[in-house]
Automatic annotation (TrEMBL), chain A:
<dbReference type="GO" id="GO:0005776">
    <property type="term" value="C:autophagosome"/>
</dbReference>
<dbReference type="InterPro" id="IPR001619">
    <property type="entry name" value="Sec1-like"/>
</dbReference>
<dbReference type="GO" id="GO:0005765">
    <property type="term" value="C:lysosomal membrane"/>
</dbReference>
<keyword id="KW-0968">Cytoplasmic vesicle</keyword>
<dbReference type="GO" id="GO:0030136">
    <property type="term" value="C:clathrin-coated vesicle"/>
</dbReference>
<keyword id="KW-0472">Membrane</keyword>
<dbReference type="GO" id="GO:0005769">
    <property type="term" value="C:early endosome"/>
</dbReference>
<dbReference type="InterPro" id="IPR043154">
    <property type="entry name" value="Sec-1-like_dom1"/>
</dbReference>
<comment type="similarity">
    <text>Belongs to the STXBP/unc-18/SEC1 family.</text>
</comment>
TrEMBL record, chain B:
<dbReference type="GO" id="GO:0006886">
    <property type="term" value="P:intracellular protein transport"/>
</dbReference>
<dbReference type="InterPro" id="IPR006925">
    <property type="entry name" value="Vps16_C"/>
</dbReference>
<dbReference type="GO" id="GO:0005765">
    <property type="term" value="C:lysosomal membrane"/>
</dbReference>
<dbReference type="InterPro" id="IPR038132">
    <property type="entry name" value="Vps16_C_sf"/>
</dbReference>
<keyword id="KW-0472">Membrane</keyword>
<keyword id="KW-0813">Transport</keyword>
<dbReference type="GO" id="GO:0033263">
    <property type="term" value="C:CORVET complex"/>
</dbReference>
<feature type="domain" description="Vps16 N-terminal">
    <location>
        <begin position="5"/>
        <end position="416"/>
    </location>
</feature>
<keyword id="KW-0967">Endosome</keyword>
Amino acid sequence: MASHLFCGRVNLNILREAARKDLREFLDKCSGSKAIVWDEYLTGPFGLIAQYSLLKEHEVEKMFTLKGGRIPSAAVKNIVFFVRPRLELMDIIAENVASEDKLHPRDFHILFVPRRSLLCEQRLKEKGVLNSFTNIDEYILDLIPYDGDLLSMESESSFRECYLESDQTSLYHAAKGLMTLQALYGTIPQIFGKGECARHVANMMLRMKREFAGSHTQILPVFDTLLLLDRNVDLLTPLATQLTYEGLIDEIFSITNGYVKLPPEKFAQKKQGEGGKDLPTEPKKLQLNSAEELYAEIRDKNFNAVGAALSKKAKVISAAFEERHNAKTVGEIKQFVSQLPHMQAARSSLANHTSIAELIKDITTSEDFFDSLTVEQEFMTGVDTDKVSTYIEDCVAQKDPLIKILRLVCMQSVCNNGLKQKVLDFYKREILQTYGYKHILTLKNLEKVGLLKPQSTMRNNYPTIRKTLKLWMEDTNEQNPNDISYVYSGYAPLSVRLTQVLARPGWRSIEEVLKMLPGPHFEERQQVPTGLHKKRQPGENRTTLVFFLGGVTYAEIAALRFLSNMEDSGTEYIIATTKLINGTSWIKSLMDSPEENLP
Amino acid sequence: MAFVTANWNPLGESFYRKIELYEMGWNLKDGLRECLVAAAPYGGPIALLKGHYRRSPSARPQLEIYSSSGLPLASFPWKSGVVKQLGWTVSDDLLCVQEDGTVLVYDLWGGFKRHFSMGNEVSQSQVLETKIFHSPYGTGVAILTGALRFTLATNIDDIKLRRLPEVPGLQEAPSCWAVLTQDRQSKVLVANGSQLFILDNTACTPVTPPGLSPQASSIVHMCVSFSYKYLALLTDSGHVWMGTSNLKEKLSEVDTKIKTPPKQMAWCRRPKSQQPSAVVMWDGLLIVVGECKETIQYHLDDDSVLVPELDGVRIISGTHHELLQEVPGACEEIFKIASMAPGALLLEAHKEYEKESQKADEYLREIKEQSLLSEAVRQCVEAAGHEHEPETQKTLLRAASFGKCFLSNFPPEQFVSMCRDLRVLNAVRDYTVGIPLTHTQFKQMTVQVLIDRLVYRKLYPLAIEVCRYLKTPEYQGVSRVLKHWACYKVQQKEESDEVIAKAVSVKLADAAGISYSEIATKAYESGRTELAIKLLEFEPRSGEQVPLLLKMKKSPLALSKAIESGDTDLVYTVVMYLKNELNRGDFFMMLRNQPVALSLYKQFCKHQEQDTLKDLFNQDDDHEELGNFYVKASYKDQRLEARVALLQSAVDEYYKAKNDFSAKTTEDEMRLLRFQRKLEEEKGEQLVGFSLHDTMTTLLSVGLHKHAEQLYKDFRVPDKRFWWLKLKALAEKEDWEELEKFGKTKKSPVGYLPFVEVCIKHHNKYEAKKYVSKVTPEQKVKAHLAVGDMEGAAEAAIERRNESEISTVLSRCSATTDHLLMERLNRAKATAVKK
């Protein structure tokens, strides 16, 4: 069920099991049959921890979505609310509890995820319902195992909260999550970081470590190094269109909590006997992780190399099926049959991915896609970043989707270290006139987080950064890559370059560039109890945990995986993040639409 | 050594022994006569209420508390009501049940802790009898009221009173009763004459003990074993019936031949007992009854009290404290006269070895031949645990150690832990400590609880030594003891804050995981705020400091500590607290100095209190944010006038913030809104709220070209965008005539390819062709291809000698129909490549 978590260098299933154990314990605390009332936001993340079957084993008979009014009737003994600690949700819960049928009272419980909150309990008290709860508990779910080498907090708005609203709650949870991680996988001896948030998280970690002094974990450290990176150190990367297979799936169809919904037409299964029946109308939902062999193989490839990989795989599979003609003896046939389920799974996986690849190809071969990519690449190489781009102008004139425009304009601003006031005002006016004045707040938000800014008197330092860190590689090999730049067909993500340089030759070599990037960079060491110092075998790789505060893209992950797999890299990477993002979801999280709040 | 068996008495198959634990340190003039006595199990403290039975109003009774060895712990005159019963809780607190049903709780040192009532019904009809009992749920109190009804509380720390059903036919106080714990429920067993009833929450069920001899006409006494598994009944005919407490099985019945009612009766058994046995006490006489007809009789000099334990009965008199128990199996095997058990032989072997006699070898061989040596060692170790005299313990352990030398692979844990346990037990059994625990009791109660008890008795150094010696993890051991010590220390009024703070910090410096906030709380509770603040400084967990700081009204400090912790929920908690405590001005002022708190509070206000948000921005002269605030507000209002007014406020703020761009665009928006409204009124077209772009598109699509033009000019829309917009709108409308006219107005700023494309998009090839000729040379090929004119496209491409364009055209040709064209293109391509 969670086989994808075993395959990495670090067995992340330990974390998942710990989380499942806590969940079971809580459920058993509310003895008897129960119904769960879900904060809808949590269902996705919880799906990564436990399926419905686990809940069912613990007498969960019904599930509802949290909403005002009365909870639907259900013949259960307990009502359990699974909620984030948010005041507005407390008001709904209070309403639920107050309108409960007095004749058939049920026991109420609250499980706060990821942490209980005094503020919320206070609110419940004010509403006079606090005493109605038999259990008020917290379910510490900070870092959720997402894949064999990937942890995510699945905290949608953490970038917005940290950089726009100065609310560092998610950083506190990140630090707590890292403490949990260290309790399970040993103290991490070295901490590096870049950025304000990284500094803050590291400070909290060191403080918490002091607070828990005395409860040393006697565990051999699994991670050698932790690297904390602020998203705002590298604002450019998420804006660029990802060109890996997984990255494109996310860009086009958006992957949510490990699942993607695809248009059904391509997946109409022609079963024998019912062929030609009407097409399914529900979107096809697929889980995407490394448990699927083929997907693990192609997810991180540049999309241009996926076709070849798929056709190669197709040949292998059909060759395997052809084997049956060679099977003569009973023993051989038996062996062939025993492999059938595996082969069939591989075949259906191949069929799925061929369909997905076709869907993607329709888009990547379109002129629009090509034009926009060309402009992106021009910006990233520093071509004409200081004047109004006719392409953007044309796109606005044709009222292309706003987010596409914002992505491009922000990219230009970032690649030029700010735009000339005149250029910036022109874009802004164009956007407001075309898409509506209401977006003025969104534009202000983008300026506040530094995605859009007027050029300061300082020199544009992007070219220096680009050259020093070799962010643009001319001769990228998409088929057999030799550098991380393949994930964006030329652009090497800045964040991953920083990670790469840290491993070898070290950040000292790029002091100048680090100073140009926002926020402090630092190094901390944590004492490891004597006797737990790792004795590295010759040739054994180091393990580094890279934590992206504010989100990470699939292409960046692909680049890190590429580094892990490079023969002489000497370092393997595990990735942690507040949320998996792409340019679109990221920009969206920063938008403000005042109209939505209309009563 | 020879006298180990001197105090053994045989009873049936097994032996009983009576060991003296202490000669009591107290000096009681009248012994225990006329005292109400309660002694806690597990060697706990003893409480006496002296002069209790002298009901003279002038003389107040005296309450005294002693350790098990009779050392005084507390003594004070009893000033409250008439006490019916004393008893101890599992955590060594003293319960005094008064006649009116009030229960007073005192600590070991005679300090009053709290009181609770057993309910109205009890206080009205008064307490007749009461029993204090222990169960897995804690300590409970059962009361028989004057109305002959039972009221029960299973756990005094979480009082839920239960009134049990009535006992039928009960006219006067029952002859005897007891509390049982069965099926996770506390029940009462009542004897009314010869009838027995079990009372539970819902029912009163008559029961009959199987095989109770018929000559009895009344049950005069009963007792339940320590584990609640067994029941003993004494009848007026002098018979003791013993059986299981579920009354399903009879174990034995013995005639004591004494018909006077006894003073006390208690079970005397141990885990893995060989036989059931009980002790019955009369004035001056103690009888042990078991399975056989015979009994053991002891003479008592003095008034005594029986204290049932897990593995025996303690007998406390005015002068002595003794333990009566069945001799444990291992001890019996070893010390029984002429025993040939392996342990006995090993002990003998070791004795000879000490004497340097070769007989040692003979004994050893004998054991080894039966390959029982490991059994022998095990027996010696186990027996050592059950012996009270350190000398005997040592002899046995030495023998075990001697035997171990001849064994390979014998696991050492049992021996080592027994040595450790005994060392601890001997220390706590010491007269000055006075906790006469047996090894069995110690294992049952666990080290944790023992340490708690030592701490409770303020024996901090001993507790720490025990922790260190037993290598208890620091968290549960030394640190915990130190914390308790510190909590006690901070209550010592005579020392100054500095001295105490220093003493505490020095002692606790190296201890891990100390909660200073708990200590500080104690200090604060005893009125020493300054000391509390000093102590809090030592607390590493800033989060822990906050609640107490708030309680002490040190809010600025609390706020900065909360921020330090990084826990935003904690910050919110403090902020909300401050909001209620301070007046608005001070509150804002304080936030101003704490930017983290301020931004969190702003977030809160954004969702909960919009008006406060405005005030905050105002206070900070944050005009930019105020502007944004008004913009947001403008969308919340449906009425146009209000919206415009709010936008005007935004404009003012933006100007103040020197943000001309925002101000100007906002003014534009106001202008647009007014325009839209005007047009809506005039033309009835829904426009308000549209973007400028959409407004113009709408106007064009309904043919209001003039108005669109006006907007285009008024708002200085770039030509390019207007052209795109207009041609798309016209094509959408399929107004080809107007489109053509528009195309001719002036030279198109977007070129003519868009014209071709929009026409094709609306499937009008005819119109599209009209514009192909106007397209710039660079876009010609594209234009021709768009309208499907292969010849034209080929012509254009060849003319431009552009290889990639030629290839594009080639890729669109079909081999069957465009054969000739392809040849031409290929030739042209060849020449283009050459160049």
